[in-house]
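lol ok so funny story. i was supposed to be doing the assay writeup but got distracted and ended up predicting the structure for this chain instead. priorities right. anyway since i did it might as well share w the group, maybe its usefull for someone
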Amino acid sequence: MRQMLFWSFLICGSTWLTIHAQQVNDNNTPLHLMKPQYRVGYGVPTAENVKKTMDRILRYIDSETPAMLVDKKTGQEVKRLQDINGETQLKQGGFRLTSYEWGVTYSGILAAYGATGDETYRDYVRKRHQLLADIVPFFKKVYRENIQIDGNVRRVIDPHALDDAGAVCCSMIKAELKGVSAKNSLMPLIDNYCDYIMNKEYRLNDGTFARLRPQKNTVWLDDMFMGIPALAYMGKLTGEARYYDEAARQVVQFASRMWVEEQGLFRHGWVEDMDPHPAFFWGRANGWAILTMCEVLDVLPADHPQRPAILDLLRKHAAGLACRQHHDGFWHQLLDRSDTYLETSATAIYTCCLAHAVNQGWLDAKVYGPLALLGWHAVQSQVNEKGQVENVCVGTGMGFDAAFYAYRPVHVMAAHGYGPAIWAGAEIIRLLRQQHPRLNDSAVQFYESEVPTDQPIFNYDGKIRY
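and the output, tada:
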């Protein structure tokens, strides 16, 4: 009898649930208010939440980048600068203090200091910049005696490529301009870096930065960032027009070869004697391009003759990137191939640049603000509990087939993701404080004021809030 009652109850209950479920329809239920199942988050974050993610990254990289000298044979700390010799090296952590990736990181952390006022960020950069400034004169003496020295210090003393010079140099100029470091303490290093960029880097006949690999006279899109921002900021630091002029000239000449108008993107590589020129739209390289334009426009005088062209190119590039953002906020490894993986460092750079361009008034907040916030949710989803940035493409050369890019590995120790992630967070914090994003009818919208007077704001229940 009990079993019969049980089955009767189960059948009746199922019937009731079925009838009840069938009663949900467009007449009796506001179906548009059902909550979407976003995979990486959505909406307007708080500045406090953004900073928590940035802080986690900073704590991790601080532990992974010791600022000290050691004897490479004994591992003992070298405390006296007078004791520096051929066996002395920067203590090795997970990342290199003098690499271009860490130049990006220094700039990103300085941006975070500017956005938050947190002196922990300032002190991170100050400590490492000052260490380099202090040790270089002593390593120079050893190097001049034809004694092999730590490669991480050699690239400061004797740069061999734009990778050695531009990004770290630019971060040091910013530190000088912001008063982060002792006045003029970084100038010997800055002057040395800029001398390499202006006078020693290999170039094409028209002066465009170039390399001899993988083919003779190859122009790398990466080299926009590795060389141009430092020159623009040197113009700001010294007031000398020649630096502004060279930076602007390089942007225009890179674009004449690399920009693909119908795609709204830059090709990764251009080789002088190739015909036709293949176009592979690698994500991070396009990131270096738009970041370069942001950096140049930040300091290029308002009346500089090339400024309108660079601003126009930035806007075209932003439009080309916008239509290729994945619905989870990321961009693909190859931007025009949705079958390639979603990559974090490029996503972080685009998030940073779109937010920055909105903050500077170069792009419309209503159009690009929601994309920047969606990008931040994607970046944040890749920062693990340790503060590591995941799904970052490792260092990448140049190829002329899709497989080369599509199968590049990703790794948490790829240094390229850390600076862009912190820099993106800094610009998102500025975006949240300078702009007026709100959820309206479940969608992110940007408004002219904190409480728009001409636009109703809807709650999740469909009722007008104001």
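The chain has a mean pLDDT of 93. The beta strands are 69-71, 88-90, 218-220, 259-260, 265-266, 269-271, 331-332, 342-343, 436-440, 443-447.
back to the writeup now i swear
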